[in-house]
Amino acid sequence: MSASVLTPAETSTGVPAGAGRPPRFNWSRARETSANQLFLVPVALVFVVLLIVPLTQTFYWSFTDFTGYSADVKWVGLSNYHKVLTDPSMLAGLGFTLAFTIGTAVLITACAIPLAVVLNKKFFARNFVRSVFFFPAIPSIAILGLVWGYILSPLGSGVLNSVLNSLFHAGPYPWLSDATLARLSVIVVAVWGGAGWHAMLYLAYLQSIPADYYEVATIDGASARQQFFHITLPLLTPAIVISNFLLMTGGLKVFDLPFTLTKGGPGYSTYTITQSIITSGVAQGRYGLASALAALFTFAVALVAVAQLWVSRRIERRVL
Amino acid sequence: MKQRRSPITSVVMIGLAGLVGVPLYYIVVNTLKTQEEMTRSPLALPTHLFLDNYQRIFETVPLGRSFLNTLIVTVAALVVQLLVGSTAAYAMAMRASRFNRIFGALLLLGFIVPGQSTLIPLYRMLVGAELVDTLRGLVVIYTGGAIFCYFLIQAYISRLPFEIIEAARIDGAGPFQIYWRIVLPLIRPILVTVGIFQTMGIWNDFITPNVFLSSPEKSTLVLQVYRSVGEFSTDWPSFMTMSVLVLIPMVVFFVLTQRHIVSGLLAGSVKS
Questions:
Q1: What is the ipTM of this complex?
Q2: Chain B residue with Cα closest to A133
């Protein structure tokens, strides 16, 4: 409508192409467009209220000494970040989260690929075996953590300890009360829970590899090992990237399993970033500190996400 | 590929599956035994049908109440997520203006930013709105998952034949009619897939109820189990029985939707 008062000279600057046409305003089209844009209102609300506003607050609080009472908020610069990187409990959380992320990613990948290759072969009771391996992905990890806490209980009456005692008269072992064993236990349980799920992911990719490749390779005299390293593994590269991306972001966010299995203990040996954020933020009201940790955490996860996008683009270009 | 059935593979794999499945077997089997029988022969099958553990759990733990709470939250959150996600995907598909494209790219933030980053401000927001410790508050938090739904639905809509929508428009159907009568039925497959994954995510979620709920009578199932463990301490038959009972709904759900889960796993992971 306003276009009608513009001179031709003005229309050429700034006004998008097509808008400079004779000003015959199309009412039905405008009504349709605005009705259409109405459909974006709910998602925009969700985006602003549940994401942008709280995210901004997290970043803002990370530079203040906010404790929950907005009356006396002081700007403290980077001191929260400095504290996060020197506080022993937060450092412990950071350390174990990284160890957990790398440990589970490596071990699950190492288990899931061979598992998928075998599960792709024909054998008796294959579907049953597939279901058993996949099963831990179904229930809540929190409940599995509690169940494993009972199995690995360091008491003599814990399941594993009593089984080891009756079979070998060995133990009891402090599965969850020794720092190193507790860390290992958490990682092993996570591998138990995740390997089958990731194997299914690899299996889906394996099934899309044409059987001719293997036939030709067999005729050419390639051994099973050569076939695995020269056909299977290269063609699984996209799946490896996706699986590891999921493992990395999931690992950095881990909370349920260590929390229900060990409560982060003994001491801070299986403490996680998320537990740190919740404890210092929600329970202790140290908003500034918790926000600084959350901000660093956001960057770390974003970095992994961007790296994954970049890597998978490159791989797509190379493979296709 | 050689499609020969190898007996060695079978034996090894069944053995391995047994090793992976033994914790589960142990738990289910021992809920049907007395404590005395359990310590004597932990891995044997029960000699007779013993259901006292189950009876005791139903008498002492309000599992029915928490089951209902979980069901209400899951259904409500799921409906909201799918509605918000599908309306957004529809709008984006209908109009690829520059504004919409930029907005769509911004939404990727919802994909990247982990829930933990916004947890503390959201907690204060819910306290301010007096929604902390309510099931409604929980639904509000889960609504954030709509952005994830949007991306999966949007990818599906973009592959639909656009002529159907164009034909409806020429026939005089308005945007709301097109969305409700044409697009929603067309995207049902992706709604099912996304719905299954979100159902499992919400139903199994522990962190959100643990942070936002405090009253025992509002507990979700997972939270209820977590809180009861402290009370039972070493009463392990009770604890295991409760775990088995809580696992049942998810196992039933899995059996009913298995087909979709495996195909959706592939589609979802390829997308993200």
A1: 0.82
A2: B17
